[in-house]
Structures are given as structure tokens and as C-alpha cells.
Write a structure and sequence with these properties.
single chain, 220 residues, mainly alpha, three-stranded antiparallel beta sheet, two-stranded antiparallel ribbon, 11 helices, 8% strand
Length: 220
């Protein structure tokens, strides 16, 4: 389990909930309305918006309705982004953190495309954000040094016992670094024993500057 840390962090809960384009499009549509609407109406709006970016322009409202009802709205509801009543079939945007923030507005407005999903999925972890903080601010490092730094951040700078550092090293090696490598955020060189950040275009996106990670992730 990831603990609190001293690295400024954008809500992993929000990023995880918004890491699927359908949910970003749905939240954008809901935030344009003052009152609750039916899931049917939301499905129509979502299908229409997605069809505009689809190669064939296909509008499948029935598919959007099923996905919203059974998958996406429950996820957004659990995360606190929407209020959803399956009984009445009414849904509305919630006005509570972590979704009532400027950076979320920019994110859902600027990036409806599914191609942006891997960026948000990779960022949807406090531990991975701590890894990126170290690499963006400190440059090339070793896996052991990176694990020690991340573990220290998660303990708010307190001393890190070796067993804790070892667990963090394993989680980075087997879970978090592979995700960041697959997303194109970092590169690992096993022969040289180094980890380094790659150029990542998302760092110039407006939502990043307006978020909590802007002070270390945004490119000026």
C-alpha cells in the first residue's frame, strides 16, 4: 500500500477514474448541465462525441448506454465524480473534490481521445508520480537509489528500514517501472544499471500546469 508523501501529487483516484476516454467524455457532458439527466440522454451525448473522432463516424448509442450503466458510471460514482441512481436512471456531475478542480476541467475538455488513456493510466499512482518526480528533478539514477528516494518520500522523509526499501524496489521493478516504460515515460538500461526520463509531450499540456504536479512536471 502506498502511503502519504511529500511530493506534490495529483489525485491518483481522479486520474484512475479519468484514464478511460468514455469517462472523460461523459464527465465533460455532465459538467455542461446544471441538472441531472437520464443515462439514455448521456449515452446519446457520449456516442455522438465519440463518433466525431472515430474513423468511421459510427454512433452506437446502445453500446454507450450499456457501458455507461454497467461499467463507467459505477466507477465515476465510486470515485466521487458523479451521483448516479440506477433506480431512476438519473446521473449528474458531483461538485466535490477531487473532481471540482480547474485541472480536471482542462483535462476532460482538452483530451477526449482514447490515445490519451495510457498517459493518465501511468500517472494514476502516487508511487509512479514519485518516480517521475525523482527523474524529472534529479536526472539519471540507479534502481536502488530511485527506490530509496521513493520510499523516503512515502515516509515523508523519515528513515527507511531496509525491508521497506526492498519492498519498494521490488514493486518498482515488477510493477511501476514496466508501466512507465510501456507508456514511454522512462527508459531502463539493465547493462548500465540506470533509469532515466524520456521526453514526454504531456508535460506541456495545460492541465499539468494547473494541477498539483505542475511545479515539478510542467515544462516551462
Amino acid at each position: 500500500m502506498e502511503s502519504s508523501m511529500d511530493v506534490p501529487t495529483a489525485s491518483p483516484t481522479a486520474l484512475d477514474a479519468l484514464s478511460v476516454s468514455v469517462r472523460r467524455v461523459a464527465l465533460a457532458a455532465l459538467r455542461e448541465r446544471e441538472n441531472a439527466i437520464s443515462v439514455d440522454a448521456l449515452a446519446s451525448a457520449v456516442a455522438s462525441r465519440l463518433s466525431q473522432s472515430a474513423a468511421d463516424g459510427h454512433d452506437d448509442t446502445d453500446e454507450a448506454l450499456r457501458a455507461l450503466y454497467h461499467v463507467h458510471l459505477p466507477v465515476l460514482g465510486e470515485a466521487g465524480a458523479v451521483t448516479f441512481d440506477p433506480g431512476s436512471g438519473l446521473v449528474a456531475a458531483a461538485n466535490e473534490p477531487p473532481f471540482d478542480e480547474t485541472w480536471v476541467e482542462r483535462l476532460v475538455a482538452d483530451h477526449p481521445d482514447p490515445a490519451y488513456d495510457p498517459v493518465l493510466d501511468a500517472l494514476a499512482s502516487g508511487r509512479r508520480q514519485a518516480v517521475l518526480y525523482e527523474l524529472f528533478t534529479g536526472g539519471v539514477t540507479t534502481p536502488d537509489a530511485l527506490a530509496a528516494a521513493v520510499a523516503a518520500h512515502e515516509r515523508d522523509g523519515a528513515d527507511v528500514p531496509e525491508p521497506v526499501s526492498r519492498v519498494v524496489r521490488l514493486s518498482l521493478a515488477h510493477t511501476h517501472l514496466p508501466v512507465l516504460v510501456a507508456a514511454g515515460f522512462v527508459t531502463c538500461d539493465p547493462e548500465a544499471g540506470t533509469v532515466r526520463a524520456r521526453e514526454t509531450p504531456w508535460r506541456s499540456d495545460p492541465w499539468v500546469r494547473e494541477s498539483q504536479i505542475g511545479e515539478w512536471a510542467a515544462v516551462e
